[in-house]
Task: structure prediction
Amino acid sequence: MHLGLEVVLCARPGVQLQGSYGHGLSLLRALHRDPAGIDLLVADLLPVDVPCDGVQLLQALSQRWPALPVLVLSAHCNASTVTLALQAGARGFLPKSASPQLLLRAADVAAQGGRFVPPDLRAALSRSRAHRSQGLPPLSEREQEIIALELDGHGTGDMARRLGRAASTVSTQKKSAYRKLGIRSDGDLFKMRHLLSVE
Result:
């Protein structure tokens, strides 16, 4: 946690910093040793270009300590990032540029079991949902299978074995799906996963 955040949070009466960790693995080890007495976890979320450590960390925290509220701070504030964080188990989401007052408000809401997303990001989420309601180009059933497996982290060879298809066929169907969705890379797919209903 950055020193500025520590100062803001610890200035609140009754708040005590239990620890600060630079890597998710260090945090998980600390929680395994002593998860008691932690009312709120503030975490930085990495950019969402591929299934990244930040999202995986949130999922691990949600699965192992579902009662532990997590407030995410990120320099990457768009609908995709916010949606991924909330779906992975975060209780709140703030830009790193948030004011101390907004940070304290978000911390209070998340620590009490609520959800907090600032108004500008809520507006971005609403626009994203409106775009989703307009619909995306329809994918064939086979293309949907490919996209769902891709989002689950399966490679072309694994998909071919699972689906009983040639790897070249899987590759062609994946390219066709990407073309329909207007994307070029796996990173693009993960950025728009909140718009898809294939999982």
Remarks:
- The first strand starts at residue 41 and ends at 44.
